[in-house]
Design a protein that fits this description.
Blueprint lengths: L14 H9 L29 H14 L3 H15 L1
Helix pairs in contact: 2-3
Length: about 80
């Protein structure tokens, strides 16, 4: 039995053919391996920081006011502070 020739997940495509498929609006998700995909500059490293209880209470109050988690509030405030400097 002859194999059908056509686009399959296991078949390599050239950059030019992928560009042409993209320009034609073809769904390219079958040709992507997203299992090992990473976003550059988004690596995470966990840190531990000790805060006074009174500061944590104020952080929690402000986080609730904004409707975000404590962690998100701390990240937002640090990012804002770094952008200003």
């Amino acid at each position: 039995m002859k194999k059908k020739r056509g686009t399959s997940v296991g078949r390599s495509l050239t950059a030019g053919s992928l560009d042409a498929m993209h320009d034609a609006g073809v769904d390219l998700s079958a040709h992507m391996d997203v299992a090992g995909a990473k976003r550059p500059g988004r690596d995470v490293q966990r840190v531990n920081v000790d805060f006074p209880v009174a500061l944590l209470l104020e952080i929690d109050r402000q986080a609730r006011r904004l409707g975000v988690t404590r962690q998100a509030f701390i990240k937002i405030r640090i990012a804002d502070s770094l952008q200003r400097s």
